[in-house]
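Memo to structure team: turn this sequence into structure tokens by end of day. - J.P.
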Amino acid sequence: MTIKNLLFALALIILGACAQNQPEKPEQAPFVWDNANVYFLLTDRFSNGDSANDVNFERNGEAGLLRGFMGGDFRGIINKINQGYFSDLGVNALWFSPVAEQIHGSVDESTGNTYGFHGYWAKDWTRIDPNWGTEQEFAELVDAAHAVGIRIVMDVVLNHTGPVTDKDPVYGSDWVRTGPPCTYQRYESTVTCTLVENLPDIKTESDQDVDLPEVLLEKWQNEGRLEQEMEELNAFFAETAYPRAPRFYIIKWLTDFVRKYGVDGYRIDTAKHAEESVWSELYEQASKAFEEWKTANPDKVLDDNAFYAVGEVYGYGASSGRNFDNGGVQVDYFAHGMHALINFELKSDANKDYEFIFSKYSNILNNELKGKSVLNYLSSHDDSHPFDMSREKAYKAANVLLLCPGASQIYYGDEINRTLIVEGTVGDATLRSFMNWEDTNTNTVVNGVGSSDLLNHYQKLGQFRAANPSVGAGVHTQITAQPYVFKREYAQNGYGNKVVVGMDLPRGVKTISVGDVFENGTTVKDYYSGKTGKVKDGEVTLQSDLDMMLLAAER
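Reply from structure team:
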């Protein structure tokens, strides 16, 4: 062997030895929808990244308080993604208000003009409303989120259009009904009706072929894209063999966003106001679109999770299990493409003690709802009776929400005490003020709690949750009542995760039992203080000025 070859062989031996001595990379926690930490925001009210798109379609009439566009847009969301705001919160799924082009006119002149700033008044499902940005910016938003492991949950509206105004003609009687209003006395008066006056209801029950509304044909013609839209529709109906009924047009338009941009899931608006079979049809096409996007974009695929859908079945609570009484008809929405339903029950439980809450939801999720889940929330854009509306129990709210079994939904500003009470507003507008970013700069105090201090608390809980699937998806067991300590254990597809949480602990030196979760000698990390310790005699002792411990084995 030549000296050159000998040196080469020695180098290989040394490199091999170094590789063997390298510490193993910590096992990355898989993303699990049952443990998702979802951040929900109204795009118009979150962050204004581009003031040039603030006014479109002459939406400049004097609006009622918090009833007009305020400038938030995709660029503002992108900026916050890139700044790490959501990642610092442990957020791994982002849900924002619907993106379809909204009606151009206004309604409710008696209270001042009301515009479709919230996204729930669609005029054209095939276009993104320019007040929020462009298609290119939407694509950039999805890519930016995916780049940091955040999934996109798109808010979809299928059962109604926007109100009728001078600028926004009604679709036509073969597409929509304009009455009667819903009375909720029976199934038909919940589904085959209008939610409110002047909110045309799509005839989702119809299987009859219908022509496109004249308002859309004229609009597309003026925008120079009529031929393209018609070609795409013809291809869709040829492939699916669906009748050209109203719901299938909208299903095509909604699933285009999945196929084109890689949207990871849907939040289904007003689910109980359409026939449940509609949601099965939507999910089938969305899943197909998701797989097509994955095939076309293999370098962008995050994991092998199926397309996600969470339904808003107003009034559903986890205690109902798989069935919901919709006007006298028992409906299992989980059997119609929905992995989870929004849980309207937690806000009522939140005043109870932690063990009651956590054990209750763990039992439900691991029995009646096993294989499915719920999305817990405490405040939202249209719940006029949220938990802690006056923001007097900010830390309790954070603890209940982010440590409760099931997925969690932070409503924008929960983490910095954004006010939910705005004097002079009408209805849900009080819940929809602009994000109070300035309060984090000054640590503005609300009921004794500083905004940036609260944000720090949310960040610690959120990062703990994101790193440990057992928090939301595991089985809950109390270890000790005094002090209150519990464990969560998760095992799925060959992956396991265990955590121990201590709450309301003494400040300073504190010792808690970890039961049988960690073996003696195990080094554990406290995600709350950032400190580490070793398990000795089934206990962990740490010193900190904090009253909580969030323990997981150090990776």
